[in-house]
């Protein structure tokens, strides 16, 4: 009887240890963990479950077996990989958003630059239009002035050619004086030559001689300087005194003379404003 009791006591102690461990793990006094919803995690999945029971020896020494360790770490490793993928996707989305934002900013800046350039071009065109209008106004005013003074010729230059009694041909000195006057109107507009011949003597003879002397001057202007005939006005004054002689009341010299006057109007001014 004593031997049976000694054997039964150790056996009962060994059997009581698992029961005590199970009772401790399932103690109702400790509050149970509330399972988290799928929205409480970054991946949207349910949280990792508690490890399954591995028996008494599994709880006493869970690292004793490789399969147990592998089963416990695989869910953790999977979640870590999922978090890495989620982080990579978020980073890519951020980069894409930033790239689109930068492209939009650059496009807006380019549009603003184009608008500024268009405004600058419009301002330049407006300035050019204003200058053109001002030039047109000035030209119109000039034309009005010229038209109003088209028949008003003003004396610009005057010279006198002397002839000996009975002479009607030009001397070299007379030709030089005519050349000096004619060269000043080359290529110009709005001018005329007034040629007046004066001769000593009386009556029709004086008029004829003065006409011949004036014609020699006109002939030289037309042939040697290509002055159009319509720009030359010739008149034989005979023995009539000139305006200067009448004012001074001086004695007229013998022989003859020709007075050449260059007159201009404002047509040259109009040509210079083109």
UniProtKB/TrEMBL annotation:
Keywords: Signal. The lineage of its organism: Bacteria, Pseudomonadati, Acidobacteriota, Terriglobia, Terriglobales. Residues 1-21 form the signal peptide. It comes from the Bacteria. InterPro entries: OmpA-like, OmpA-like_sf. It holds the Pfam family OmpA. Residues 23-50 are annotated as: Disordered. This is Outer membrane protein, OmpA/MotB family.
